Amino acid sequence: MVFWTTNQKPYLLDPTVLVDSPIPVFKSLGQLAKENSLGILIVLTCLICALLLFLYKKNINPIEETKKTEPEIDPFTEALKQFDELSTLAPRPKAKPFIFKLSEILRLYVERQFKLPAMEKTGEEFIQEVSIHPLLRQRFEMPLREFVQRGDRIKYSAENFDSKELNSLLDSAREFVCEAQRDWEEKRQMDEERLNTEKALNRPST
Q: Engineering a disulfide at 97: which of 93, 117, 141, 195 sits with its beta carbon 3.0 to 4.6 angstroms away?
């Protein structure tokens, strides 16, 4: 016969203790976050990096695409086109607006083709830039100086100038652009031939 004693496990005789306390199945969000803080941090870091990369590409790509799709401007072709447009404008601009536009076309060609700061210069400053350019100073310093002086006389004078004078300036500007372009192309060809010769001389013999 087995005797039960209450001093060993008194809770067995306690009528209020019906079942054991259940083990919690679900954890709170706080507990989960605390237990997996490192993994969450890594995921958030990856998401932030991906977002920043997306925003960077979104801002850069349109600029790069614009650069790729934007056609290169040929200074010589553009100058001749603008000369033709100016000469055929109807009604023809008055003397001052005409010479301002003509001077702008010529200076823009010089700035683009010869990499001279021409647009924001005064007439005298422009000629000074021309006088130190190794190609332009040889043949074009005096013709450009004359063009600038005649143009300034029209810009800042109260005199009236007829179409003959304007046509003469237009012809001189067009002539300068054509001759300067020819010299520029000849110099470029000579430079290319010199580089090819140097490469051929420096090429190791087989």
A: 93
